[in-house]
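Request: Not sure, any thoughts?
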Amino acid sequence: MEPPVTVSSTNLQRFKGLCFTTLIIISSFLGTIYVLIPLTPLAYLNPKLFRLIVDFLIGYWLVLPTSLVEWLFGVRIQVLGDGIDPKRPSLIIMNHRTCLDWLFFWCALWRIEPSLITTEKIVLKGEVKYLPGAGWAMAYNAFLLLDRNFLTDKARIETFVEYYARMDRKYHLLLFPEGTDKCARATERSNSFAKKNDLVQYEYLLHPRTLGFVFLLQKMRKEKCVDYIYDVTVGYGDQIVQSETDLVLRGMCPKDVHYLIQQIPDSSLPKDDEQLEKWLKDKWAKKEKILHNFYKEKGFRRQNGWSSQFKNFQLTSKLKLLQIAVVCIWLAATYFWLYLFVSLNHQIWYSLLALVSIVGLQIYYNGFEMFLARLSIR
């Protein structure tokens, strides 16, 4: 049985949440206007170099929020399984228990191989791109931001998979096939769908949306940018914190987060659409059993038929030192940017100009990330 969904917080938790949110907003906003915006012309002049630089900068900036959730909120991350090969492009599929799954997954990637945080891209709901600072950085980082309507998202998926392929990098695209987090409303909709279609009502999962998964995988195959599928299962050992607002406004955060990773060669998957749909449905049925055992046994166990490379990826002393060094660099950079902002003339006007430019391009191109993708087309 799952732990309860947390609905209340203490004054200390809310204070921690305020400190975390304030620092992340300031750092991401100032980093965007002082680093990312000046780099934008490079997206046209040399798209591959732009992508390399921005992937590196934003990837290592992500060490700041992920380290803070570990240090400030005491989150413990356990990563078991096959790991992820940084040298081979992949599609990662994960159950979407809460809106924070992807945040903690960056902590997991850091334990597996730090460079993975520079090559992971996430399929997220499109509204996040309008968040000042953090949302702009997601757009600069070429996350695949969707409206969750296949008719409108189809062209965007094609555009971005082609963009990833043109960049000649080994990207790892994280997809939540369920389409949304397992909140009460989504669970009710999933159960209604299951009842209507004579399917099992899952206790720990939502029924996956197969159409988007199949289309995305087939497009990645066509562009030759997928070698592996990684099936990732996330479970929470102590409490469920459902949304980002619970973290940033109330300071609520789970303490015990577990990831189980299975590496599957794409060559072993079916080739036709109908069989791929069945494969995903079968995978979700197995994932339900895995989660049932996880909550029964208080942890993940090695699964039958998995590879001999099953590992426990831990935060080594070397990774801890690198983590501290990276956080110190970004804190110093944020302080320097803040000094520039308050001491130099016309910084308010520069910030307003940057804001108007980004928002204008978002409106005109239906997303700043679409603007960057189209700049790379010759």
About this structure: The chain has one domain: 11-375. The mean pLDDT is 93.
